[in-house]
Write a structure and sequence with these properties.
Elements: E1 6-14, E2 23-31, E3 38-47, E4 60-70, E5 79-86, H1 90-98, E6 102-105, E7 125-127, H2 130-141, E8 146-148, E9 161-164
Parallel strand pairs: 6-9
Antiparallel strand pairs: 1-2, 3-4, 3-8, 4-5, 5-7
Length: 165
């Protein structure tokens, strides 16, 4: 495993039977980082039973969510990845799920279906559009009834790198 970074690589090739100098160097840059188009944190309001507007007292809940939009990956990786982080914040979520400053977006384990068990905070709901990704998370984690508030950008992402696994 190589951490997501920019690597300058030089490969030297030589003809063992040729006269001196026989070598050729080929240099290239390998960039393993993914740069998100958007990273935002928002609040979702949902009702444990019923719709948000007709919620019984005590059943109205709020949670935080993180949305990451990728449009610099391969075509199949591009889209919206949404994480339900409960009452957490970005830094606590990153440390808990990824152990530090490298956010590993789980493309292989992403959830694309609106049916199934709740999605953990370390696994993204995915959609090619924001509304599709929100729909997956809403149906899986918020009883199919949720109201999403606008997202804000986290205070500082400069110490974080992103990768898709």
């Amino acid at each position: 495993n190589m951490p997501p970074s920019i690597y300058d690589i030089t490969i030297g090739v030589a003809d063992a039977g040729g006269p001196e100098p026989v070598g050729t160097n080929i240099a290239f840059t390998l960039d393993l980082r993914i740069v998100p188009n958007l990273v935002g944190i928002g609040t979702v309001t949902y009702c444990l039973n019923g719709t948000v507007g007709n919620c019984v007292s005590g059943e109205l809940q709020t949670a935080e969510y993180i949305v990451i939009q990728i449009n610099t990956g391969t075509a199949s990786q591009n889209g919206f990845y949404i994480y339900d982080i409960g009452q957490s914040n970005f830094q606590t979520w990153a440390n808990s799920c990824f152990g530090g400053n490298t956010i590993s977006i789980n493309y292989t384990g992403r959830q694309t279906s609106s049916s199934g068990n709740s999605i953990s905070s370390c696994v993204p709901a995915y959609g090619t559009t924001l509304s599709a990704a929100k729909g997956v998370l809403e149906n899986r984690n918020y009883s199919g009834q949720a109201s999403y508030a606008n997202t804000i950008t986290p205070p500082s992402l400069s110490s974080y790198t992103f990768e898709i696994v």
